[in-house]
Design brief:
Elements lengths: L4 E5 L6 H14 L6 E5 L5 H7 L6 E2 L18 H6 L4 E4 L2 H6 L4 H13 L3 E6 L3 H5 L3 H13 L10 E5 L13 H18 L2 H5 L2 E5 L4 H8 L6 E4 L6 H9 L3
Parallel strand pairs: 1-2, 1-8, 2-3, 4-5, 5-6, 6-7, 7-8
Bound molecules: phosphoenolpyruvate.
Phosphoenolpyruvate binds next to strand 8.
Length: 250
C-alpha cells in the first residue's frame, strides 16, 4: 500500500549504547504523523533496537540480508534470522552494497526473491552515477536496474516493495537532487512500473528519495507529488535532525 515513509539508514555507525540513546531520543520526540518511520541500525544492534522500540511505532528494519536460507556463508544473515527477532522489512541494493561488496543486479534479484518468499517487505535502492546523469543516461540506467532486479516479479508481489531512488552522486556528498530532478525521476519510475505492470501497481507504490536529505531541504523534496518520503543517511544519526525531517512530511 502506498504510504509516506521516512527511514533512517544508520550504516556502520553507533555502538550498542549509542544506538539505545538515539532510539530513546527518537521515541520520545516522535511527532504525531501519518508517515511510517523506520530505522536501520547495524545487525548486532537490531534485536536490542526491537526491544527498545516495543512501545513505539518506529519500525526497526535491516540494512541487508543474504539470499540463502542458511548454510556456509560466513558473516552473512538470512531472512529467517531477521524475522526471528521481529524484523519484517529489509533494505536491498543500497549503492554502497553495490559499489563495495560487488552486489550485482543478479544477486539483488535473488535477495529480493528470498525476502519476498518469507513475506518480508523490501526497500529496494537504485540510482545512477554522476557520469550517467552527465551523459543523459540516467533514465536508462534506472530502468535497467529496475528491470534486472524486479521485473520478474508478479504484480501481486509489488505490495511488499518500497522503492528508494538514490542518485549515487547525492549520497553522503551534501549535494542533493533538486526537488524538480527528484520529481522528474520519480514520475518516470512510476510510469515505468505502470507500463510494465499497470497503473494500480504504480499508484500503490511508495517511492522514496535518498541523497543528502537534511532538515533544510526535506519539505521541498517531500512536497513533490511522486515523492512519498525519504531514505536518510547522515542526518538520521542526529535525533533532532531526523525528527525535523519527519516533521517535513506531515
Ligand atoms: C543513504 O545512504 O541512503 C543516504 C541517503 O545517505 P545520505 O542521506 O547521508 O546522503
Amino acid at each position: 500500500m502506498r504510504s509516506k515513509i521516512v527511514a533512517g539508514n544508520w550504516k556502520m555507525n553507533k555502538n550498542a549504547e549509542e544506538t539505545q540513546a538515539l532510539l530513546a531520543a527518537l521515541a520520545a520526540k516522535l511527532p504525531d504523523t501519518q508517515a511510517e518511520v523506520m530505522v536501520a541500525p547495524t545487525f548486532v544492534n537490531l534485536a536490542g533496537a526491537v526491544s527498545e522500540l516495543q512501545a513505539s511505532r518506529i519500525e526497526v528494519i535491516a540494512q541487508n540480508m543474504h539470499f540463502a536460507e542458511s548454510g556456509a556463508y560466513t558473516g552473512e544473515i538470512s531472512a529467517d534470522m531477521l524475522m526471528n527477532i521481529g524484523i519484517d522489512t529489509v533494505i536491498i541494493g543500497h549503492s554502497e552494497r553495490r559499489a563495495y561488496f560487488g552486489e550485482t543486479d543478479g544477486i539483488l534479484a535473488q535477495k529480493v526473491k528470498a525476502a519476498l518468499d518469507k513475506n518480508m517487505r523490501v526497500m529496494f535502492c537504485f540510482g545512477e552515477e554522476l557520469e550517467d546523469r552527465k551523459s543523459g543516461e540516467h533514465f536508462n540506467v534506472v530502468h535497467s536496474q529496475l528491470k534486472n532486479a524486479l521485473f520478474d516479479l508478479d504484480a501481486s508481489a509489488w505490495n511488499k516493495i518500497i522503492l528508494a531512488y538514490e542518485p549515487v552522486w547525492a549520497i553522503g556528498t551534501g549535494e542533493t537532487a533538486s526537488p524538480e530532478q527528484a520529481q522528474e525521476m520519480h514520475a518516470c519510475i512510476r510510469k515505468t512500473i505502470a507500463d510494465q505492470y499497470d497503473t494500480a501497481v504504480a499508484n500503490n507504490l511508495s517511492i522514496l528519495y535518498g541523497g543528502s536529505v537534511k532538515p533544510g531541504n526535506a519539505v521541498d523534496i517531500f512536497s513533490k507529488p511522486d515523492v512519498d518520503g525519504g531514505l536518510i543517511g547522515g542526518a538520521s544519526l542526529v535525533a533532532d535532525d531526523f525528527i525535523a525531517i519527519i516533521n517535513g512530511i506531515a
